[in-house]
Amino acid sequence: MVRQALMTKAIVLLVGISTGFAQYAEPGSGQPQPIPREMQRNFVKSLLIPGWGQLSEGHYKRAAAFALIEAGAIAGHYLYLAKEVDAVTDFENFVNLHWDFNQWIATESIINGSVYHCGFIQTHAMDYETIDGVKYPIKDSHYYENVGKYNEFICGWDDYDQANPDSTADGELLTPHKYEYSLMRRTANDYGKKAKHAVTIIMFNHLISAFEAAIGTDITTYTGKNWQATLLPDTHIERRGLQVVVTF
């Protein structure tokens, strides 16, 4: 999954190399000259494998730093993915043990064309199928979200006391089991967010490593058959980058 996402971003970035490494020449000096291939090669190397371009230039400490960041971020991504899967399994098992669909569906009533459950108008669907006259819930992501968030599902919890409901400041009804379940879902969501953050770190590590490798390539001056050029930082050009001053 991570590899496919990175390869897609790499292709997009490779297509943009022609603009990222644009060709510039000092006015009146003739046609722009291309950026040296060594610089482009180091850019592509580190775009694909962070630190590869730095390694080619003998910058071993930089190469090691980018490689370690890459390894740590990939390990963190899969670690948090595994934690998320375990946490999801835990909260799904918890719902299956403490929330009863049949207990909830028995409270269904229709008043003035609106469906009510647990004394509340139903605002979120609870999909189910009927087999031989028996209703079975479809336990998808909406099912596990609904029972932990909305009041019309409160009476399905096995510890719900209608005579002594507990509620939050915004009117959401709680039971001890529902509250515990909300914490379990929050933990699972946090693991998922951390896994996504790791992917973001991986993406930026590739990009930063690529540009650092290109800038770090030893080509401050170079020559062609009929010209000589020097790389200078230029903040006046529309595309931020390096200006190639060419002398014939």
Q: What does this entry look like structurally?
A:
The protein is α+β, with helices and mostly antiparallel strands. It folds into 2 domains: 2-90 and 195-247, no CATH class; 100-192, no CATH class. Helices cover 50% and strands 15% of the residues. It has 8 helices and 10 strands. It has helices spanning 2-15, 17-20, 37-48, 52-56, 60-98, 101-105, 141-146, 176-215; strands at 109-111, 114-117, 120-121, 128-131, 134-137, 166-167, 173-174, 221-223, 228-234, 241-247. The strands form 4 sheets. The chain has a 3-stranded antiparallel sheet, with no helix packed on it. Helix 3 (37-48) runs antiparallel to helix 8 (176-215) and helix 5 (60-98) packs antiparallel against helix 8 (176-215). The longest helix has 40 residues, at 176-215. 24% of the residues are buried. Mean pLDDT is 81; it is low at 9-28, 225-229 and 234-242.
Could you give a short description of this structure?
The chain has 248 residues and is an alpha+beta fold. The chain has helices at residues 2-15, 17-20, 37-48, 52-56, 60-98, 101-105, 141-146, 176-215, and strands spanning 109-111, 114-117, 120-121, 128-131, 134-137, 166-167, 173-174, 221-223, 228-234, 241-247.
**Beta strand %:** 15-25%
Note the overall shape: elongated
Counting DSSP H or I runs of 4 or more residues, the number of helices is 8
Uncertain segments:
9-28, 225-229, 234-242
What structural keywords apply?
248 residues; alpha+beta; 2 domains; three-stranded antiparallel beta sheet; 8 helices; 10 strands; 50% helix
What is the strand and helix layout of this fold?
Layout: H1 2-15, H2 17-20, H3 37-48, H4 52-56, H5 60-98, H6 101-105, E1 109-111, E2 114-117, E3 120-121, E4 128-131, E5 134-137, H7 141-146, E6 166-167, E7 173-174, H8 176-215, E8 221-223, E9 228-234, E10 241-247
Antiparallel strand pairs: 1-2, 2-3, 4-5, 6-7, 8-9, 9-10
